[in-house]
Specification:
Glutamine Phosphoribosylpyrophosphate, subunit 1, domain 1, alpha+beta, 10 helices, 13 strands, 8-stranded mixed beta sheet, single chain, 313 residues, 5-stranded mixed beta sheet
């Protein structure tokens, strides 16, 4: 058994691990662990305390995938509900679809009896207002929002705010693998923006036969390259887990980057060998959480950092 999570997964690791230790399914472990993070105070990239879009609206994205059947469900730009990961799972289980967005996702969440909640604390609203007001004149702020949001959206492409997704990957005692991600996207995004988190194959992918992968960071890049699916495909081709992740990093490096950002790939194979690597164009490392059967508690580790100059031309 193994659980792998992003740095933001800390609050949910105990729940995920406990579920596996009690004989539970990997899919349930992923969902229950992420639900804890979605409720955690002070996590500004996920759940109830997440940073909003440019209009001050909290839009949440999530996806979940069952490696046993390759079934998947996802929601995007969901407003007013506390646990998008659970709504995503119900999409997988109740509908012939994979992805619902916006008002349709909210209608479905209501049908399923999903928990509603206030997703914006006074502190978060104040940070949103401060970020905007510091970048404009008093007259512009008094007449917010403007006729055109696009120029402001370009200002939000900041590597310090354009990441923070929570992801959890798990393999249970009988070999079932599951992956899940949940996020509010990057801070102050253009309304309706979807990153990689609700896109199966970009934000996460799971296959019992080969392994699983999930991504955090600059979702526009992993959407373009199908990064999570690529890792499992490289595993299917016979590469080791380290080589599969490095091949996905090579794909990222070969693409043109129009904005700043970084991508962290979390992955393990069907033998529970894991690899976590951050591709970045600036210095700095990423942390993650890992637990394997026999460990007393989850441990925080440092991801491998890869810079463009580390890769062959």
């Amino acid at each position: 058994m193994i659980v792998l999570g992003s740095d933001t997964a800390e609050a949910g690791m105990e729940a995920a691990v406990g579920h596996l230790q009690s004989g539970g399914h990997a899919l349930d472990a992923v969902e229950q662990g992420i639900r804890v993070v979605e409720r955690a105070a002070g996590v500004h990239s996920v759940g109830q305390d997440a940073f909003p879009n440019l209009l001050g609206q909290s839009e949440l994205d999530a996806s979940i995938m069952d490696g046993r059947t390759l079934a998947a469900g996802a929601v995007g730009a969901l407003q007013g509900f506390v646990h998008p990961i659970s709504v995503a799972r119900r999409v997988m289980e109740e509908l012939p679809h994979v992805l619902l967005v916006g008002a349709g996702a909210a209608t479905f969440a209501d049908e399923m009896g999903a928990e509603r909640g206030d997703l914006m604390s006074d502190e978060v609203r104040q940070q949103w207002a401060r970020w905007l007001s510091e970048r404009m004149s008093p007259e512009e702020w008094a007449h917010w929002p403007p006729a055109r949001l696009a120029p402001w959206a370009r200002l939000t492409a900041d590597p310090e705010t354009a990441h923070g997704t929570v992801c959890l990957l798990a393999r249970d005692a009988v070999g079932n693998i599951a992956a899940g991600v949940s996020t509010s996207g990057w801070a102050w995004k253009y309304p309706g923006r979807l990153g990689d988190s609700p896109i199966i194959g970009a934000g996460c992918y799971a296959d019992n036969h080969y392994g699983t992968a999930a991504c955090t960071g600059f979702g526009e890049m992993t959407i373009r390259l199908g990064t999570a699916r690529s890792v499992t495909l490289y595993l299917k081709m016979g590469l080791s887990i380290q080589s599969a992740v490095r091949a996905a990093v090579d794909d990222l490096n070969a693409a043109t980057w129009f904005h700043k950002g970084r991508v962290t790939i979390y992955a393990f194979d069907n033998h529970e060998r894991h690899c976590v690597t951050t591709y970045t164009r600036a210095n700095g490392s990423a942390l993650y959480w890992q637990w394997e059967d026999g460990m007393r508690a989850p441990e925080q580790r440092e991801a491998v950092t890869v810079l463009p100059q580390d890769l062959a031309p």
